[in-house]
Design brief:
Elements (H helix, E strand, L loop, with lengths): L11 E2 L8 E3 L6 H13 L4 E4 L5 H12 L3 E4 L5 E4 L7 E4 L4 H11 L3 E7 L10 H9 L4 E2 L5 E6 L5 E5 L6 H9 L7 E5 L7 H13 L4 E2 L5 E4 L8 E3 L4 H14 L2 E4 L13 H7 L3 E5 L2 E5 L8 E3 L7 H9 L4 E5 L11 H11 L3 E5 L2 E5 L6 E3 L5 H11 L5 E3 L12 H9 L4
Parallel strand pairs: 2-15, 3-14, 6-7, 10-11, 18-19, 22-23
Antiparallel strand pairs: 1-23, 3-5, 4-5, 7-9, 8-9, 11-13, 12-13, 15-17, 16-17, 19-21, 20-21
Helix pairs in contact: 1-2, 1-3, 1-6, 3-5, 5-6, 7-11, 9-11
Bound molecules: shikimate-3-phosphate (S3P) and phosphoenolpyruvate.
Phosphoenolpyruvate (PEP) binds next to helix 3.
């Protein structure tokens, strides 16, 4: 039986910054890297070690799902995950929660298991786009009952694989999910995308890089086409980078208060989409330094509006929308129609919630126009969306009497968020 994620009932009064925020904030591991690493470790030829993994609802769901299909995952003394691959088998039930990565990365892996693997998740997960993945798996020789959540994969321990064309314009995770399990498809995989542009391509680049780093040959030399040769996956020994998209609200705190926030261990090179915050904050007038201490952002007196195509980095949109609402002038966020299929319809949610605080927001076909205005307090609804909740917290730094209805929903990727936020504000001056 799949349970709904239980929201915290008491509304959270977002703390107001009484001055410029000055803090160093350690941010936990990347969700995207952790969940890819778990899948690859489950399919690797020998046991793997995952150091500093993200522990959150999304990553715990991924680990639990892999355990239910036969993978051994235990925790070491320093919080590292030790992952021992096993024979993949059903019957099993996978709870996807609201995690796009579990929903899109595990059906291909389930096709490699023997027996029936049933999938379900939160009510909203049933609405998130998925059909192209299941159709693609059928075309590759898999047996799938159903076209969206709940559905079941009837595995025979073997998937022929080969060539398939899908429309991945709703989510890059359709491509990443197929690629991650493809080394174990009998004939490997060539997946072509046909349709409007694939969003979030850095996430596909992350998948390709992690596969290559562990001995898998991937050809991504042609646009909209990816080929994976059948191969063994080398075991992982990986230290997970901090989650740069989760770091974004803390950096935003410096930007909106004219303060200064450092996030240690910011990687010099990365495939994480969150790294794009550097360019975005610079365009909004912040100063950035990347050195041995990490990334330090120092906010300007007044944020400048921006015109941004966020197609590649859509998961940053709620944070950027909060910044735009506090900037002077009109900002335009483009290329993010696919956000309508995220944890909630993020375009509608941002329009509604920012509008309710007095912001002037227009929803366009592929984004938002946001005019910075004096805002007033009110109730900020998070719609079970961790990034809506953190966007509310950013606004609350400058807007008194703003309450976030369900701050606990941040546990999807950042379980300590409320304490981290309050501790950061302990160093206001
Ligand atoms: O593969 C991943 O780890 C992700 C891909 C992106 O999904 P979409 O392509 O659906 O936007 C991103 O928004 C999500 O937060 C994580
Ligand atoms: C879109 C997101 O998550 P998911 O992995 O569930 O798609 C996100 O974290 O912003």
């Amino acid at each position: 039986m799949i349970r709904d994620h239980c929201p915290m009932t008491a509304p959270w009064l977002a703390p107001v910054a009484r001055g410029a925020v000055h803090a160093t904030v350690e941010v936990a591991g990347s969700k995207s890297i952790t969940n890819r690493a778990l899948v690859l470790s489950a399919l690797a030829s020998e046991p793997s070690v995952l150091r500093a993994p993200l522990r959150s609802r999304d990553t715990d769901l991924m680990a639990e799902a892999l355990r239910t299909v036969g993978v051994r995952i235990s925790e070491g003394e320093d919080g590292e995950w030790l992952i021992t691959p096993g024979l993949l088998r059903g019957p099993a039930t996978v709870d996807c929660g609201l995690a796009g990565t579990v929903l899109r990365f595990l059906p291909p892996l389930a096709c490699l298991a023997e027996g029936e693997i049933a999938f379900d998740g939160d009510p909203r997960a049933r609405e998130r786009p998925l059909g192209a993945v299941l159709e693609g798996l059928r075309a590759l020789g898999g047996t799938v009952k159903g076209d969206s959540l709940p559905f079941a994969v009837l595995g025979s321990g073997y998937l022929p694989g080969g060539e398939v064309t899908i429309d991945a314009s709703a989510s890059s995770q359709f491509i990443s999910g197929l690629l991650l399990s493809a080394p174990h498809f009998e004939n490997g995989l060539t997946v072509h995308h046909e349709g409007a542009a694939v969003p979030s391509l850095p996430h596909v680049a992350m998948t390709v890089e992690m596969l290559r780093e562990h001995g898998v040959e991937v050809d991504d030399s042609q646009p909209n086409s990816w080929s994976v040769s059948p191969s063994r996956i080398r075991p992982l020994d990986l230290t997970v980078e901090p989650d740069l998209s989760n770091a974004a609200p803390f950096l935003a705190a410096a930007a909106v208060t004219g303060g200064s926030v450092t996030v240690p261990r910011w990687p010099a090179a990365t495939t994480q989409a969150g790294d794009a915050m550097r360019g975005i904050l610079t365009r909004m007038g912040a100063e950035l330094v990347l050195d041995e201490a990490g990334l330090t952002v120092t906010g300007p007196q007044q944020l400048s509006p921006v015109d941004l195509d966020l197609h590649d980095v859509g998961e940053l949109a709620p944070t950027v929308a909060a910044l735009a609402a506090l900037a002077e002038g009109e900002s335009r966020l483009r290329g993010i129609a696919h956000l309508r299929g995220h944890e909630t319809d993020r375009l509608a949610a941002l329009r509604r919630e920012l509008g309710a605080l007095g912001s002037e927001v227009t929803e366009t076909e592929d984004g938002l126009l946001i005019r910075g205005r004096e805002l007033h307090g009110g109730k900020w609804h998070s719609y079970a969306d961790h990034r809506m909740a953190t966007a509310g917290a950013i606004l609350g730094l400058r807007v008194p009497e703003l309450t976030v209805d369900d701050i606990a929903t941040t546990s999807k990727t950042l379980p300590d968020f409320p304490d981290m936020w309050t501790n950061m504000l302990g160093t206001v001056r």
